[in-house]
Design brief:
The protein has helices at residues 21-39, 54-61, 66-71, 91-100, 144-161, 176-192, 199-204, 221-225, 236-251, 296-299, 314-323, 342-357, 375-384, 395-400, 425-434, and strands at 44-45, 51-53, 74-76, 83-86, 109-118, 130-139, 167-172, 257-258, 270-277, 286-292, 307-313, 335-339, 362-364, 389-393, 402-407, 417-421. It has 450 residues and is α+β, with helices and mostly antiparallel strands.
């Protein structure tokens, strides 16, 4: 290669993003809050592989859906010819694991998961080809109570994240035979008005007519508003289940709207379906979708087992958190260790370990190609790291077996710098932090998830 030929730059795959340190605190805030909320309802984490057998998603999602036809990252394993797919959603893998490990043998399970999903769709704001979801599946519960519990759990999460502008829409799509009766009438109705249907609706007319009701096309709104309503076809059991969910929500003052056009394109959903929607993100308004899917486990070859769940897109919720006023970047550390000279560096290492033993976050100043840097430049770094305290060790401190402790956030008039015997530095700093008024610092033993 000639000297002047530039090495070709490698960049991230389109629609797959890096999450950089300045954004990661927001991700951690969301993940810690969500985990803390669902654990307070007794949900346990399940982690499933990112790659599954392609047949799993074809069976779970349906071979004629957009996801399977156009959006899945599927490939043949060149080592053994297996047909594999990067997971486009989380429910199928969780259900496979429930069956494979017979998880409900000793009773129902409340499960939660989080992680990346993959869909080859056009990237847009809040929608990426590798995107992250947080979801819950309650498996083995058949009553309306757990449907309501999942909804109330979401409400608590929005409150804890400070997102008041999310609205709840609910509907019941009944059972398979009720949908089948409605489907016959719906197709007959739509065929009578075929001249109004757009190309997408015509394509779905016989494969998935329910999805036509979900159209965003303004020219079709009157048509779908007057279409036969699935709610009118529900039998006694389906209605009782739906009313059971509503009764619990009403009793707990959970506001909702019944949206009779709220459906699911996937065959395995039944009875309760719900979505949390917002106007703050433009047209793509759904931030969390859920519902009951009692037939799915049996269709996978497991024993008939009722189940209900939801999934939310993390990127879209982070967009909302930013709109609502992004919380401050938390301080990177409690203590920044400033040192000058080899003996001081050795002492600083000892002190750093002792401070961490006491549960504090400590950044040790590290040297660069230009060397360790002056005390002044190191103090600037300590300030930039958001440290509550700088602990300074130079030649004088080494000789006297002391350290200088400087309060970086001290108010005017407060004592800023104190000389402390080396063996008392840890107790001194911990006392300052625990008595330190408004410092939002922590000692890890008392660390909570929020």
């Amino acid at each position: 290669m000639s000297e002047n030929k530039k090495t070709e730059k490698i960049t991230a795959v389109k629609g797959m993003n890096d999450i950089l340190p300045q954004d990661s605190h927001l991700w951690q805030l969301f993940e810690n809050t969500a985990q803390s909320v669902v654990q307070s309802y007794g949900f346990q984490q399940i982690r499933t592989p990112i790659v599954e057998d392609t047949a799993l998603f074809k069976r779970a999602i349906g071979a004629v859906t957009d996801i399977v036809e156009k959006e899945m990252y599927s490939f043949e394993d060149s080592m053994n010819g297996d047909q594999l797919t990067l997971r486009p959603e989380g429910t199928a893998g969780a259900v496979r694991a429930v069956i494979e490990h017979n998880l409900v043998y000793e009773g129902p399970k409340r499960l939660w998961y989080t992680g990346p999903m993959f869909r080859h769709e056009r990237p847009q704001r809040g929608r990426y080809r590798q995107f992250y979801q947080f979801g819950c599946e309650a498996v083995g519960f058949s009553g309306p109570d757990v449907d309501a519990e999942l909804i109330m759990m979401c409400r608590r999460l929005w409150d804890d994240l400070g997102l008041p502008e999310i609205r709840l829409e609910i509907n019941s799509i009944g059972d398979a035979e009720e949908r089948a009766r409605h489907r016959v009438d719906l197709i007959a109705y739509l065929e009578k008005h075929e001249d109004i249907l757009d190309a997408e609706a015509k394509r779905r007319l016989h494969s998935n007519p329910l999805r036509i009701l979900d159209t965003k096309n303004p020219a079709m709104q009157d048509l779908v508003n007057a279409a036969p309503k699935l709610m009118d076809y529900l039998g006694e059991e389906s209605l009782a289940h739906f009313n059971g969910v509503r009764k619990i929500l009403d009793h707990n003052n959970i506001q909702y709207v019944i949206n009779t056009r709220l459906v699911r394109g996937l065959d395995y959903y039944n009875r309760t379906v719900f979505e949390w929607v917002t106007d703050a993100l433009g047209s793509q308004g759904t931030v969390c979708a859920g519902g009951r899917y009692d037939p799915l486990i049996a269709s996978f070859g497991g024993k008939p087992t009722p189940a209900v769940g939801f999934a939310m897109g993390i990127e879209r919720l982070l967009e909302l958190m930013k709109e609502a006023g992004e919380p401050d970047m938390p301080n990177q550390c409690d203590v920044y260790l400033v040192h000058q000279g080899e003996a001081a560096q050795l002492q600083a290492f000892v002190l750093g370990e002792r401070l961490r033993d006491a549960g504090l976050d400590v950044i040790m100043h590290g040297s660069t190609a230009a060397g360790a840097g002056s005390f002044k430049s190191q103090m600037k770094k300590a300030d930039g790291a958001g440290a509550a305290f700088a602990v300074i060790i130079g030649e004088d401190e080494v000789a006297n077996n002391t350290a200088a402790v400087k309060a970086m956030r001290a108010a005017e008039g407060e004592q800023q710098q104190t000389t402390v015997p080396f063996d008392q530095v840890v107790d001194f700093v911990v006392d300052q932090i625990t008595d330190g008024g408004d410092h939002h610092h922590h000692v890890h033993d008392e660390h909570c998830n929020h």
